Amino acid sequence: MSTQQPDSPASEGGSSIFGKQVVLLALISIVAVLLYNVVFSDGLTTLFQDPKSVQLTYVPADFQPNMDEEKTLRVLANPEMYKKEFGEMVYNFNVSLLFHVANRMALHDSLKRRLEPEYRKHHEYLKTLYYNDFVALKDTTAGMYETWYNDNTNQAVQIFNEVAGKYTCFFVTQIMATLIKADGGKLMAKGKNVETPCGIAISEGLHPMMTRLQKRAEIIDFSASRGLLKDRVRQGIAELATYELRSRMGIDKTLQYKLLGFSVSETDIRVEAISVVKAGFKLDQYFDVTFSPSKGIIYVKLPPPTILSHEVYPRVDKLDVGFLAGINEQDMNERFNELRREFRRDAIENEKVLDKAKMRADSVMQLMLGPVVKSINRNYKLQVRFENVGEMMTEEEWRRRGETGTPPPSAPADAPQPRAKEKVLAQ
């Protein structure tokens, strides 16, 4: 009796052929995807090769800043009053830097057209960083004193140069790397005065522009100092001083006259001074009293605290003049102004006079208006609030800045309207 074996080798051969077809189909699909990316995109090529280098040929180019020097200096001297214009100035200056870098790198027009849209992606946070850093470094309440020492506008230019130097390299490098796709690769360049994009922006754009502004600022400061007070100024004020700080400070300075690197004569200066700083509120800028019957609270709204006055009484305790090293009025004025700045910095940053003036405001208002509130209703309470208001432009300040006509009205910035349930008692 014979038996027949199943055809098992034939069955195994069929499964093997089917498996090979699946693998072949998968390989064809992978090759097709790779070919598509090579032809239509460069997304996957970086997986198989190092970042490619970008070769550029640098060409000479002149920096053409899109800035009005007079307006720029006016904005820098008063950043809080011209906050919107400050942001526009930052925008125009940074875009001008980017176009100068692009011109020096001889980028194609198609790439230049993308510069401004790319910068707009960064501008909102950049203008905030510029403004906050600038205001933090510049004491905007000391404008009159800086003007008297011929240093208000010039100091503003120096501070802006310091602030811009912090962020210029960041956004220039970021945007240029995005445009020329050199992020992670190499930037090969040839030509005259070859420099990195950051170096071009700093050395050929920022520094020369700041030098031009400083020269103009010196002229403005000189004229403003001479015209600060023609004779005397008479004007009504409404101020509430709530905190006073008195302090004493001194500074030593040695001026050397050197010959062939050796000191042959010295002049020693020691200047001491006492300072009286008064902090409080300018009620002519903003003062409001409202009443909420439902809560039984009378709200007194004040402007932010500021330095109302700063008196400095300098005294020269030591002046040893060498036989060769002399001293002039500029040296003395610089010492006096340096002391004045240090007094104000110490008062604001260390002594926190503005915060203490704010704390004292509640006690003063309770003392002044508390009896009036109790006379209306013994259950009523008085509460002090502070509003964020802009600086008010006086006629004297307007004329000092060389403007004509009448100063623009300065309404409180972002001052909320009284609620429907609040009765306005004073405004």
Description of the molecule:
The chain contains eleven helices and nine strands. With 427 residues, it is an alpha/beta fold. The chain folds into three domains: 23-49, no CATH class; 54-226, no CATH class; 239-426, no CATH class. It has a four-stranded mixed beta sheet, covered by helices on one side. β5 and β6 (297-302) form a beta hairpin. The N and C termini lie far apart (123 Å). Mean pLDDT is 75; it is low at 42-53, 396-405 and 409-427.
Q: Would you spell out the secondary-structure blueprint of this structure?
A:
Blueprint: H1 8-40, E1 54-58, H2 69-77, H3 83-104, H4 109-112, H5 115-137, H6 143-148, H7 152-180, E2 187-191, H8 197-226, E3 239-259, E4 262-282, E5 288-292, E6 297-302, E7 306-320, H9 329-350, H10 353-376, E8 381-386, H11 395-400, E9 423-426
Parallel strand pairs: 1-2, 6-8
Antiparallel strand pairs: 3-4, 4-7, 5-6, 5-9
Give a summary of the structure in a few sentences:
This protein is α/β, with parallel strands linked by helices and 427 residues long. The chain has helices at 8-40, 69-77, 83-104, 109-112, 115-137, 143-148, 152-180, 197-226, 329-350, 353-376, 395-400; strands at 54-58, 187-191, 239-259, 262-282, 288-292, 297-302, 306-320, 381-386, 423-426.
